[in-house]
Design goal:
The chain has seven helices and no strands. By secondary structure, it is mainly α.
């Protein structure tokens, strides 16, 4: 009788472990973060390793990867990218990235509109056509630069 209970207990434990392990393995992140965490660390701790140009390169690669995997970039990444473009003097890239943040995360609209209106006076805030055109142009430009390298 003790032998049957032990076998039942072992089977129960094994089933429980399988369920536990399969639930851990099947969890995936809601957003794609890419190298963002290490990029932020380098930006503050090792600024020479995370220049704005290098950050733009890394974030752009992460965005391409996420698009290929059909994943959504995490909140704030496009805003960060927009600020980086502004730092290097690329107004078109900055506005496109900031508007993309606003499109993907409408709750950021007030903050993003404030950033755009202060940094780039005169840039329209609500034009989805310009957002699409600017984003497509920026993506084409980045792809051309990648092909040249």
């Amino acid at each position: 009788m003790g032998n049957g209970i032990n076998k039942l207990m072992i089977k129960s434990i094994m089933i429980g472990l399988c369920i536990l392990l399969s639930s851990c393995a099947s969890q995936s992140s809601l957003y794609h973060w890419g190298n963002y965490e290490s990029l932020l660390y380098d930006m503050y701790v090792k600024p020479d390793k995370a220049t704005p140009v290098k950050q733009i390169e890394i974030i752009t690669k992460d965005i391409r990867f996420a698009q290929k995997q059909q994943k959504k970039m995490a909140p704030g990444i496009y805003a960060h990218l927009g600020m980086l473009y502004a730092q290097v003097g690329d107004e078109q890239g900055a506005v496109a990235a900031l508007k993309m943040e606003k499109t993907l995360y409408p709750e950021s609209q007030v903050m993003i509109d404030g950033l755009i209106s202060r940094a780039f006076p005169g840039v329209p805030l609500d034009s989805d056509d310009q957002l699409t055109d600017a984003t497509e142009a920026k993506n084409e430009n980045n792809e051309a630069n990648q092909d040249a390298n």
